Amino acid sequence: MDKKVIRSHLSPYRGGLEARRPWCRASARPPTLVITVSVVAALLVGVVLFGVRLTPSGGNNTWVSAGVRDVLNAVSSKQGITAAGPLATVPDPSDRLLGGLLSPDFDESSCLSRYRAALYRRPSPHAISTYLISALRRYESLHRRCGPGTSAYARAVERLRASSPNASTSSSSPSADDCSYLVWNPIEGLGNRILTITSGFLYALLTDRVLLLHSSGGALDDLFCEPFPGSTWILPEDGDFPILGMGSLNGGHHESLRSVLRRGEDPGAAAWLYVHLRHDYSKIHHDQQFFCDDTDAALRRVPWLVFQSDNYFVPGLFLIPRHEAELSRMFPRRDLVFHHLGRYLFHPSNTVWGMVMRYHDEYFAEADERVGIQVRRFRWAPISTDELYGQILNCTQRETILPVPNVAATGGSDGQPTKQKAVLVVSLHGEYSEKLRDLYNSNNNGSTSTTGREAVSVHQPTHLGAQRSGVQEHNQKALAEMVLLSFSDAVVTTAVSTFGYVGQGLAGLRPWVLMSPVDGKAPDTPCRHAATMEPCFHAPPRYDCRAKTNGDAGRIARHIRHCEDFPQGVQLVE
Questions:
Q1: Which of 20, 263, 375, 501 has CB atoms 3.0–4.6 Å from 535's, for a disulfide?
Q2: Which parts of the chain span the membrane according to its record (predicted)?
Q3: Do residues 111 and 349 touch, judged by C-beta distance below 8 A?
Q4: What is the CA radius of gyration of the chain?
């Protein structure tokens, strides 16, 4: 094997994996701790409610969180409660399964990124609920039993076909072992698609449904690996599926939730229903009743649900009372939903992973620190290139994310810079990376010594000019850039951008958010350090299910607040 390839797989950081990550060494062992049960309980509460910041313990290259975890297990063993285990654990950085988040039941060669991507990211300090891990294993069993290619799936499709008005035969009576399904219908760009698939998966997890993706026109071909062992999450495109024209479904369709509620019928009596959760649904109370307890109960009886959304509607699921207890057990910290589910679901195909590795090895493998800057311009928020570039520079230098150039500064004792900082710029346009590169390329072989004795290099994988969500190669490049962004040590994103939401969530970082322009000008505060890494639900329901009138979703639950980057939306916070 080529030496460069070996380095890319084993030494994602400069100096090698062991040099950067001492906790991976075989000789490292947690220190012996003498601690009372009450203190252990307090530490556990801290892990569950507030997460853990990994902190070096002395000079022996061990980590406090590992010691706490071992003490918790030891105390549980003495008390005879090992079967229950701790409520949440911080994944060991050397654990390829991410603390049990990922299933071991895959052939690694079929999806190289599944067990390797975490090696290139900052170690996640965020605890994973053992209840979530159990729920994922249960779901995998359900999907294996009910997914495409199984007899249960064939029976479910046959009953659906028999329920159509033109059916010539009647279906058999449903049994307790029958499977229910949630079918995702694609719309908008890749960022929106990833966020809506995540939302649909959480809904499926809560309601014992099997999530299937309608890959219209091959929208997902060679993009993601299969996330569930022994099955597929792609709805078969055999032309024989009974629900026709899924790409043209809308809220006014006869079999939509909106239409059924308007007719005063029981939604639970339908063989299938379309649920319209696109941004324009907020004008229609009947669509928004999807987030009401009584409607949720009725939909439990519908074997097939088809939905289309351009929203990260996870916060809306936290508004449904019947799911509160389950969600609190899965996510003791509410602001980690996408971080955990995104890393569980989305693994780049080998084709996309090859793109990621080639770019990483060429430009980032030798860096001491990596900074990701994601730039997006929207028609509804116009701003000139120069104005936006000034905002980026003002933000990154004011917050010491990037240094202020000073060609007169010296480096180390040999005159060389003491720190290599690689900057990844992700944008449809190349002007911003070019301006940054010109700024930092004015001295010393493309790097500029600075007051912080840092050498800065600027890189941009693509600048495609326009978003083309229907083109496979475009989607593959977009996904590769999202993954590269998630390798960053610090992230700057653009307000309201779903692309940025995905990158920051996979990275497990609270981003610095470039705030939207005001009258074409950068705001006085160029960026803010986000209070949460969770994406924003841009179009939350305005219908108060309990009061049966208009309401404010940002004032119903203490862990749901209006978004900093888009005040009309809401997001999960801790």
A1: 501
A2: 30-52
A3: yes
A4: 25
For residue 393, count other CB atoms closer than 10 A to its CB: 17
What is the rounded CA–CA span in Å between residue 186 and residue 255?
19
Element at 351 (helix H, strand E): helix 350-363
Whether 384 shows a pLDDT value over 70: the answer reads yes
- What is the rounded CA–CA span in Å between residue 247 and residue 183? 12
The pLDDT score that the predictor gives to residue 414 is 58
Phi-psi group of 100: left, alpha or beta (phi > 0 → left; psi -120 to 50 → alpha; rest → beta): left
Above 60 in pLDDT, residue 36? Answer: no
In sequence order, what are the residues at sequence separation of 6 or more whose Cβ sits closer than 8 angstroms to the Cβ of residue 278? Answer: 187, 251, 308, 309, 310, 311, 539
What residue has token string 């002395």? 58
**pLDDT at site 354:** 98
Report the b/e string of 297-334 with b at 16+ CB within 10 A. Answer: ebbeebbbbbbbbbbbbbbbbbbbeebeeebeebbbbb
Place of tokens 């159990």: 134
Nearest to 472 by CA among 309, 347, 351: 351
Using DSSP, state whether 234 is helix, strand or coil. strand
Q: Please report the sign of the dihedral spanned by the C-alpha atoms of residue 57, residue 60, residue 61, residue 67.
A: negative
Amino acid found at 91:
P
H/E stretch holding 285: helix 285-288
Pull the structure tokens for residue 465.
């000019």
Question: Dihedral sign, CA of 298, 301, 306, 309?
Answer: positive
Distance CA 107, CA 247 (A): 34
User: Closest Cα to residue 286, out of 298, 273, 297, 295?
Assistant: 295
Which residues make Cβ contacts (< 8 Å) with residue 242, sequence separation at least 6?
A: 157, 160, 161, 163, 164
Token pair belonging to 237: 């495109």
Closest listed residue to residue 226, CA positions, set 148, 138, 129: 148
Q: What is the pTM of this model?
A: 0.84
